[in-house]
Every structure is written in structure tokens, then in C-alpha cells.
Amino acid sequence: MSTQRTAHGAARTVKVSKYLSKHLRHQPERIGLTLDEGGWVEIAALLSAAAAHGFRISREELDHVVASNDKQRFAVEGTRIRASQGHSVPVDLGLPPAEPPAYLYHGTVARHLDAIRAEGLRPMNRHDVHLSPDRETATRVGARRGRPVVLTVDSGAMHRDGHVFRRSANGVWLTPSVPPRYLRLPGPR
After folding, report:
1. Over the stretch 89-139, which tens digit does the pLDDT of each residue have?
2. Sheet containing 74-77: which strands, arranged edge to edge?
3. How far is CA 43 from the centre of its chain?
4. Three-state secondary structure call for residue 137
5. Which domains does the chain have, with CATH numbers?
6. Nearby residues of 159 by Cβ (< 8 Å), 6 or more positions away
7. What is its EC number (predicted)?
């Protein structure tokens, strides 16, 4: 396979992944989809809606994006698909509460540190704050927005203090918020 075809294939995979994220996490109604309460939609309905809105995706392409996504952003169950987490539309992923490891990590960039020091981590337009199980993953997450800064979350103390954690199918830890007292931030406090 030529380098040009490989690059095109990789670019198309990213484009399809972003399209799926947008419509399975944030704007299903934009292409006429209705997610069920768990965030699921029939794959046939998704492919048909995408095609009707000028973005054709084959079933093979969809399966490739689901299987090859390094963050496992999507889950397929039978004839249905959903985003694993990160929704801004109302869904109940049905994730049971779980005891987190002693420490989790959050990737961000320096320009957000003052607000984080004052308010902690908030979900912003999502349902929950997303935390990573290791520094490497948090570094990659933060790097999407610039030079990454990795914050350490004392998730063990949060859990002992009654904060609820859930773990998504792809290993991302979710919690409604992280108050500042549970964060270790770089620089002056």
C-alpha cells in the first residue's frame, strides 16, 4: 500500500471518529438520531442518517474506527453503538459506582490552572470530569490543547470522603467534580 493511500486512510479514520463523537456524544439530533436512555443507537440508523446528511460511512469503516480507536471511544453491542463517555446530551451509561485507585490524573494546559486552583475540576459541558489511570494517558489528553500539565487527584481520599466514581468501558474514570483540596497542582498555591 502506498504512503499516500495510508495517510488518506488514517485521515479518513480520524474524520469518521470525530463525526461519530459529535453525533453520538453531543448532537445526535443534528442528523435526526435519537439515542436511547443509555446512549445507544442502532448502527443501521446511524449509517442511514449519516448518508442522508452527506457523510457516507460503510459498516466496514465503522467497525475499523471502533476497533482501531486507541481510546476505545465507542462500544458496539449487537446491532447498536454508543460513545463510551463524554456526552453533553442526557444519557445514563449505567456504570456502577467503583472504588478508584489511590491516585488518578487529569491532563490540562497551564492557562486553566488559575480557575482549577479556585474551583477544582468541573465537568464543563459534559456530565462528569474525566480522569486517567496513569500519567501517560493524562499527558496525551492535555497535549490535545497545547503543552500538557498533569494534575494528580487524590481519588482515594475523595472516595473515603463519599465522592462517587465510575469507570467507563475504556478505563476512563468519571466523577461529577473534583474539589481543589484533592488536587496536586504545579506551581504556587
Report:
1. 888 888 999 999 999 999 999 999 999 999 999 988 778 999 999 999 999
2. 41-42, 80-83, 74-77
3. 20
4. helix
5. 3-83 (1.10.10.970), 104-184 (3.20.170.30)
6. 99, 100, 165
7. 2.7.1.-
